[in-house]
Amino acid sequence: MNKKEIFKDKRGTIEILEKNLTIDLLRIKSKINTKRAAHYHKTSGHWCIVTSGEIQYYERPVGKNIKPRYTLYERGDMFWTGPMIEHLMVFPNYNDNEFICLSTGKRTQKEYEKDLVRINYDLAKLYSKWKD
Fold first, then answer.
1. Torsional sign, CA 45, 50, 53, 55
2. N or C: which terminal CB in the chain sees fewer CB atoms within 10 Å?
3. How many CB atoms within 10 Å of residue 55?
4. Residue-wise over 15-32: b if at least 16 C-beta within 10 A, else e?
5. pTM score, whole prediction
């Protein structure tokens, strides 16, 4: 296993547990009332496994003006986010939210930023305000 890298901010921590040529393994901890993601990946994707707490997850295909899909993921749930899918993770209810992320594509900061496109709107707000 490689030397662990840990990134901290007001939302929590991202710990890179393993980096190799085909997949990276991360442990992500999020504090209550925080949001993560609000972006999409051009070519990479990731599997997420909820290990504690829950994730309110919103997603929709890039470029589609449709209501985002909402799913509540709880401990033990696993889900896939593929390329070109806008996604947002919300952690409103617990202090101990944690998930494991297995990502395809390189996770060096340079490669990650090259593959990532941030979105400047809140998919959760779009979901709640959408008129069916």
1. positive
2. C
3. 25
4. bbeebeeeebbbbbbbbe
5. 0.89
Residue-wise pLDDT for 48-87, tens only, equals 999 999 999 999 999 999 999 999 999 999 999 999 999 9
Spatial distance between the Cα atoms of 124 and 126, rounded to a whole number of angstroms: 5
Residue with tokens 């901290």: 8
Cβ within 8 Å of residue 81, ≥6 positions away: 41, 45, 46, 48, 59, 87
28: left (phi over 0), alpha (psi -120 to 50) or beta: beta
Task: Collect all residues with Cβ–Cβ distance below 8 Å to 132 and sequence separation of at least 6.
Answer: 67
Name the residue type at position 6: I
Whats the size of the chain, residue-wise? 132
